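Moderator note: this is an archived Q&A kept for reference. The question asked for a predicted structure of one protein chain; the sequence and the answer are reproduced below.
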Amino acid sequence: MDNKNSPTEKKSPPTFWQMLHSVLAAAFGVQSERNRQRDFSHDKPWHFVVLGLGFTLVFALGLLLIVRLVLYFLGA
């Protein structure tokens, strides 16, 4: 009998680095099924929401910085 999926087995929540990896993988659309199941097996989605919003903010600000640098060096 396989005890990996036993409902009585208490799994530890994902670490910060595992959650960050999941957010980055999901942003690029390459999340593995095993990691997705690990992420959705815990009742704390707010950690992923906050990390996702933070990633989106950093990504958008990074793009803005790149565009401004390109425009600056082009003399526009």
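Archived answer notes: Residues 3 and 9 are 8 Å apart (CA to CA).
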